[in-house]
Design brief:
The structure holds three protein chains of three kinds. Chain A is of the alpha+beta class. Chain A has twelve helices and 14 strands. In chain A, strands 1, 4, 5, 6, 7, 8, 9, 10, 11 and 12 form a ten-stranded mixed β-sheet that branches. Chain A has a two-stranded antiparallel sheet with strand order 2-3. A two-stranded antiparallel ribbon of chain A has the order 13-14. In chain A, β2 and β3 (91-92) form a beta hairpin. The longest helix of chain A is centred in the last third of the chain and has 45 residues, at 238-282. The radius of gyration of chain A is 30 Å and the shape is elongated. Chain B has helices at 2-10, 14-47, 69-74, 106-112, 120-128, 137-143, 186-196, 217-227, 240-250, 252-283, 285-293, 298-338, 352-367, 369-377, 380-385, and strands spanning 52-57, 65-66, 79-87, 91-92, 101-104, 116-117, 132-136, 150-154, 161-172, 182-185, 203-204, 206-211, 235-239. The two termini of chain B are 29 Å apart. Chain C is 33% helix and 27% strand. By secondary structure, chain C is α/β, with parallel strands linked by helices. Classes of the chains: A alpha+beta, B alpha+beta, C alpha/beta. Chains in contact: A-B, B-C. At the A-B interface, α2, β4, β5, α8 and β13 of A face α2, α9, α10 and α12 of B.
Chain lengths: 389, 388, 224
């Protein structure tokens, strides 16, 4: 095998322009493939991270998103007394919230985009310990102060610390920036629930979130709520809710991305095939010589398959290295489930990289199979005469 | 004569030429599909007539306006018709087959949207029956619905169970018209809200305003928004085209990724063509040497190499475009049925074949550069040695 | 000798292979009169082919001067060299070097494509050249449909179609059986006597060399 390796490597170098072009071709396809997986994973990562397993989200019965949901103050008051809710000191970890969309202007283009506005109180942070104000401070209750998510501050006009936003015919001072390890909350703007209700002429909350004393209590809680005719609400584990939000977009990226990488890889496979056929044709004499020296047909076959695998491997590594640079960028797009903008990153994981290599190598091997068969079938006598003719 | 030489050269390596043409065609095919996807995304905004405005709540689309605004908009000079609609939401069966559902004031809505075509008897039947709905031709075909069938929905924005009888199946007047939506009576929805959800009764998602003269769009929009300035619900009015275009650009990042992909893939095809040509040139090293001894110079050799490369790329490109027609149908059917919420229509843009073919020629030319340089760089002495 | 058509003055030349200098020609002086038929005879490695490369301007001598028809070949810029070469010199190779995808007539036509001759004129020239080598009836045959001797005759037709004054032949019989070699040598002789072509023949075949009017023996880069 070691002889194989250096033999192949030397040949790759000898035909370096051809091989470089092939490697770059495979590299590009792997780049696209890995990029798509990274984006899909990034979207999932953002949304799944948003929800926590111990939390339960309360929506109006039948509602599928916080925006389209409504929760009356009486319902919220009744829920707050439920014994299943975890306590912190005397306070139940329960946060009724108003969630609406507003239009904000983006930096650069100046176009308006939908942004999620979440009105709550100190409980909003208590039930979500992963959300932290990293700069500035919390808003004062009952004031026109807001805290913007990191991504909002970065992408929207006047959303930075100390700046002033305008929405709902009022002005709002940005007094803090929140972060939550890349989750969707970083694409939201938070403020005081009562002020928001006043501003938008609403008398009811959108949803409520609470922490369970024990996650195993969920199913009994659910059946109790379903049976209570006063409530007309539905409960979902927060994690499951946010995971379902990602479904459409992840599905979109995956479907489109994978169909297309399928096509691209067919192209790159054929490209590798062209190269390997060329390699076999170029080395007819050499194949004859090796066979005359006693190399078996099987050996010749594996020699060429190995060579194309090597091309595929180098190409994949190149593609993955290129794709890893994507981690420094991020994308923002509308999330169709909530109709609001959300920023996503590209996330490279170990398993995505492995898939990339597997993909690139098998693409190259697929392209190398037929040429290797040709090498295997080369007639020794004919191959050795080849040069003279 | 040199051209004949080029053509015969193409046939010298039938396997490689075939593979190159095949690769090129697959890539042009993928390029075409990507471009069609991008075009489909923007299709709706292009298909919208220019004479309609859309008035919604100034804060965002998640807020509603009082239905009473209708009369106040209708009397504004230059306005020739007003209708209104709500996003109905809801879930059909397990929610997997998604299609847009609108609660509209049917009479005025159909009048303002001439692109929605209904046979007169079906239109009559729909207007008469408050529990009726109409559905698009494509949607009906996909879910196997016929006139008279009952659609059962579970409410999401408006709770409860809902039943609507299909009284009509509409068709679009042009290819860009959405034929995948469902329309129902706004009154039917509002009746129930008056009982169960009074806070939201009597509100609409947006008004559709028709202008007598589309050139007055800016002026009329301003007048409408001024009419409601400083009231509880301020409005924001823009042309329907602008609204749709804005919705399309909000998802811009995904589309931009697709656009970037379509450029990258051309890069792949360039590599493949350049590779095939580099191999060809290397093999004909000796032959180019002979031509040089006969007095052939760079322009002649260039003609041979570039000519061959362009032929290969062009054949591939043309094959790709030919394949694009059936493939875009299949791909379009797949997308509209699996990702129907994203794509209502999927048709090949008219200028795409021309673009694809000219890009193939460009790829052919670019792909020949490195091989051509390889050929120029070598010296006759060494080329002739090759034969020895 | 001012009447010489080819004048090689004190030419030295070496090749480099992996930075090792391999001297090929040492202070070589050679002059050839117009319309003569010179055979350069010598074993392989004696520098025969190098002389041809220098004469044709494929290579430039490191020292010394190569003049043909009073033109200093080693000074011509590449672009002019190609034009000059096409007009002045015809080549004949050991392996014929025909383009396999072109017919005999098309192969012969190749150099004419670089001229401003009309299509009809080109056809006429091609026919004349092929008739001259005795292949007037093989115009539409492809190289693989011809015998070795016939292929070489097509190559000779290609070499003379531009009516050059000099023919350079590198082992033209090296790949042929004795009968075909006979024919080729007779043809070259005829071109020398009837058409007045100056011919430089490089070979290690003594029998072929004897058909020339002058024989120069090369040994280790020097004339004997």
């Amino acid at each position: 095998m070691r002889i194989f390796f250096s033999y192949n490597l030397r040949h790759l170098f000898a035909r370096r322009i051809t091989n470089l072009l092939t490697i770059m071709g495979i590299g590009l396809v792997v780049f696209i493939f890995v990029g798509v997986l990274m984006l899909a994973h990034g979207v999932k990562h953002t949304l799944v991270n948003t929800g926590s397993k111990e939390n339960v989200l309360v929506l109006r019965k039948g509602a599928i998103s916080e925006i389209g949901s409504g929760l009356y103050r009486e319902q919220a008051a009744l829920l707050r007394t439920f014994p299943d809710i975890a306590l912190q000191g005397d306070h139940p970890l329960f946060s009724p919230e108003i969630v609406v969309l507003i239009n904000l202007e983006k930096k650069g283009t100046g176009t308006a985009a939908n942004v999620t506005l979440r009105g709550g109180g100190t409980e909003s942070f208590r039930v979500r310990p992963q959300v932290k104000i990293v700069k500035g401070r919390m808003w004062r209750a009952g004031s026109n102060e807001v805290v913007t998510g990191k991504e909002i501050a970065r992408r929207f006009k006047n959303a930075g610390l100390g700046q002033t936003l305008k929405f709902g015919r009022q002005t709002w001072k940005v007094v803090g920036i929140l972060e939550s390890s890349g989750s969707g909350f970083e694409s939201e703007t938070w403020g005081d629930a009562d002020r928001f209700m006043d501003t938008f002429g609403r008398t009811y909350f959108s949803s409520a979130i609470f922490r369970l004393r024990d996650p195993s209590l969920f199913s009994t809680l659910q059946s109790r709520i379903d049976q209570d005719p006063r409530l007309q609400i539905s409960v979902t584990p927060e994690a499951a809710y946010y995971e379902s939000r990602s479904g459409g977009l992840v599905n979109f990226i995956r479907t489109l991305g994978l169909i297309l990488t399928g096509l691209f890889s067919a192209g790159a496979s054929l490209g590798a095939m062209i190269t390997m056929y060329g390699a076999v044709a170029n080395r007819t004499t050499e194949i004859g010589t090796l066979r005359a020296m006693g190399f078996t047909r099987g050996r010749m076959f594996s020699l060429f398959v190995f060579e194309s695998a090597l091309i595929g491997f180098i190409g994949s590594v190149l593609g993955i290295a290129l794709a890893s640079l994507l981690q420094f960028t991020s994308l923002s797009t509308i999330n169709f489930a909530t109709m609001s903008e959300l920023a996503y990153g590209f996330v490279l994981t170990y398993s995505i990289a492995m898939w990339g290599v597997l993909f690139g190598v098998s693409m190259a091997i697929l392209g190398g199979l037929l040429p290797a068969v040709r090498a295997m079938r080369t007639n020794v006598a004919h191959a050795l005469k080849f040069r003279g003719a | 004569m040199l051209l004949r030489y080029v053509i015969r050269n193409l046939a010298r390596h039938p396997l490689r030429a075939t593979l190159t043409v095949l690769t090129m065609s697959i890539i042009i095919l993928a390029f075409g599909l990507l471009r069609t996807t991008v075009a489909a995304w923007y299709a709706e905004s292009l298909g919208t007539p220019p004479d309609r405005l859309r008035t919604r709540h100034a804060v965002s689309i998640s807020f509603q306006l009082p239905v009473t605004y209708q009369q106040r908009i209708a009397i504004i000079p230059g306005v020739s018709g007003v209708s209104y609609a709500n996003w109905f939401g809801g879930r059909w069966k397990d929610g997997k087959a998604f299609f847009p559902r609108y609660a509209v004031e049917p009479d005025s809505y159909l009048e303002l949207h001439p692109e929605i075509q209904l046979p007169p008897p079906q239109r009559e039947a729909f207007l008469r029956d408050r529990r009726a709905c109409i559905v698009g031709r494509k949607l009906a075909a996909k879910l196997g619905w016929r006139v008279g069938d009952i659609v059962r929905l579970q409410g999401s924005l408006y709770p409860g169970n809902w039943e609507f009888t299909i009284r009509g199946i509409y068709t679009g007047t042009s290819q860009t018209t959405d034929e995948g939506s469902m329309y129902l009576h706004w009154v039917a929805m509002d009746e129930r809200r008056r009982i169960e959800d009074q806070a939201r009764a009597g509100t609409v998602g947006w008004f559709v305003v028709r202008m007598a003269n589309p050139e007055q769009a800016a002026q009329i929009s301003t007048t409408i928004d001024q009419t409601f300035a400083n009231s509880i619900a301020e409005t924001r009015t823009e042309t329907e085209q602008a609204f749709r275009a804005n919705m399309a650009t909000m998802s811009g990042a995904v589309i931009r990724v697709i656009e970037i992909m379509s450029v990258l893939i051309l890069g792949i095809s360039l590599l493949v063509v350049a590779n095939a040509m580099a191999m060809t040139v290397r093999e004909r090293h000796h032959e180019y040497g002979i031509l040089k001894t006969l007095g052939f110079r760079a322009p002649h050799l260039g003609f041979l190499i570039f000519g061959e490369s362009v032929c290969l790329a062009l054949f591939g490109g043309i094959l790709g475009v030919v394949l694009l027609y059936p493939a875009s149908k299949g791909f379009g059917m797949f997308l509209t049925s699996n990702l129907g919420g994203f794509f209502a229509t999927f048709t090949l843009p008219a200028q795409l074949p021309v673009l694809a073919v000219s890009l193939s020629v460009g790829i052919g030319l670019l792909g020949a550069i490195i091989p051509f340089l390889l050929c120029l760089r070598s010296r006759i002495r060494d080329e002739l040695r090759h034969m020895g | 000798m001012t009447s010489s058509i080819i004048d090689v003055q004190k030419v030295s030349h070496s090749y480099f292979r992996d930075d090792i200098e391999i001297p090929v020609l040492k202070q070589l002086t050679l002059s050839i009169a117009p319309e003569s038929f010179v055979a350069l005879l010598g074993p392989s490695g004696s520098g025969k082919t190098t002389i041809l490369n220098l004469l044709a301007g494929f290579d430039r001598p490191m020292h010394g001067r190569v003049s043909i028809n009073e033109t200093n070949v080693s000074r011509l810029p590449e672009r002019q060299l190609a034009r000059w070469r096409a007009k002045t010199i015809g080549f004949i190779f050991q392996f014929y070097n025909l383009i396999p995808v072109l017919t005999a007539a098309e192969n012969v036509e190749l150099p004419l494509l670089l001229t401003s001759l009309s299509r009809a004129q080109r056809v006429k020239h091609v026919a004349t050249a092929l008739r001259l080598v005795g292949l007037g009836d093989r115009m539409t045959h492809y190289p693989r449909q011809l015998s070795g001797g016939q292929e070489q005759r097509v190559a000779i037709a290609r070499a003379i179609v531009m009516d050059p004054v000099i023919l350079l032949a590198d082992e033209p019989t090296g790949n042929l059986d004795s009968e075909a070699a006979e024919e080729i040598m007779t043809l070259l002789q005829r071109l020398n006597t009837e058409q007045g072509k100056t011919i430089v023949l490089v070979t290690h075949d003594l029998e072929a060399a004897q058909r020339a009017t002058t024989i120069c023996k090369l040994q280790k880069g020097r004339l004997e």
